[in-house]
Amino acid sequence: MAEQRTTRRQALRTAGATALAGGAALAGAQGAAAAGDQGLAGSWQGTVTATDPPLGSFTSLFTFTPDGSVVEARRLYLPDSPFGPLLETPGHGSWERVGPRTYAISFRFLLQGAPDNAAFRGQDLGTDNVRWQPTLDRSTARLSGPFQSDVKDPGGAVVFTARGTVTAMRIAVERL
After folding, report:
1. What is the b/e burial string over 101-110, where b = at least 16 CB atoms within 10 angstroms of the residue's CB?
2. Rounded Cα distance, 45 and 171, in Å
3. E strands within 65-141?
4. Phi-psi region of 39 (alpha: psi -120 to 50; beta: other; left: phi over 0)
């Protein structure tokens, strides 16, 4: 019985300490957000423009978590690519701060031949491995910088590279 009380007390102490730490962290995060100092964390809408080779532009959504994860989403069907029509998964990856307002971001997509791709219908075409190094302009809340995309076949060999720029704006809360 005494052993059970000790275990309960320890559990309550641990829970209390965790709640206090969580509350302090939340208060700190809310304070930073209120001060406009969110850094990269949050959701962004961007324009990706491939310039080498010139493949045009498309819209992309990015979500950066405070712990260094990134999720990127765009339209899943890509009708025009060097490999014919493709399907892409959302991109998953990581980010880290490399300077005062500069970040290194890497994420990866899985690629598959689309149903209307006569040469690669349904085939695993590998991965699209993107590296992006944007700088955050705090006065405009704009994130922009160069990217490089390396398409790798299922064996890991680079079969295509594209370079260009990405510019993104934070998605702001739109109150009702």
Report:
1. eebebbbbbe
2. 6
3. 69-73, 77-78, 86-88, 91-97, 103-113, 124-132, 135-137
4. left
Q: Are 127 and 146 in contact (CB under 8 A)?
A: no
The amino acid that residue 16 corresponds to is G
Helices (H), the chain: 2-34
CATH class assigned to 42-170: mainly beta
Residues 4-38 have pLDDT tens digits of 444 444 444 444 444 444 443 343 333 333 334 56
Token pair of 108 as six digits? 């990866």
What is the sign, positive or negative, of the torsion defined by CA atoms of 110, 115, 117, 118?
positive
**The predicted structure's pLDDT at residue 80:** 87
141: confidence class by pLDDT, cuts 50, 70, 90: confident
Question: Using the 8-state DSSP alphabet, how is residue 176 labeled?
Answer: -
Is the pLDDT at 39 greater than 90? The verdict is no
**Residues 108, 126: contact at Cβ < 8 Å?**
no
SS3 26: helix
Beta bridge partners of 143: 136, 168
